[in-house]
Write a structure and sequence with these properties.
0% strand; 71% helix; 2 helices
C-alpha cells in the first residue's frame, strides 16, 4: 500500500508573477492616487496646500510599505528557487 500525500484545500488565489518593475509600478499607482486626492480637493474647493501635504505623506508611506513587501517577496522567491536547485 502506497502512502499518498494529504491533499489540502487552497482558499487563496494563486500568486501572480512578479512584475518587471514592481517598485516603479507601485510608486506610479500611489502617485496617481495622490494626484487624485489633490484634484478632488481642488474640485471641491478644499485647501490645495493641505491636500498636497497629505497626499505626499500618504504616497511616501504607501510607497515605502510597498517596497518593503516587494523586497520580502523577491527574497522569498529567490530563497525558494535556491532550495529547488539544491
Amino acid at each position: 500500500m502506497t502512502k499518498e500525500k494529504p491533499r489540502h484545500l487552497r482558499w487563496g488565489l494563486p500568486e501572480a508573477p512578479t512584475p518587471k518593475h514592481p517598485y516603479r509600478d507601485s510608486a506610479l499607482v500611489y502617485g496617481f492616487f495622490a494626484a487624485l486626492v489633490v484634484l478632488l480637493a481642488w474640485i471641491t474647493g478644499g485647501s490645495i496646500g493641505k491636500a498636497v501635504v497629505i497626499a505626499a505623506v500618504v504616497w511616501a508611506a504607501a510607497t515605502i510599505w510597498s517596497i518593503a513587501r516587494w523586497r520580502q517577496r523577491i527574497q522569498r522567491e529567490a530563497r525558494e528557487e535556491a532550495e529547488d536547485l539544491a
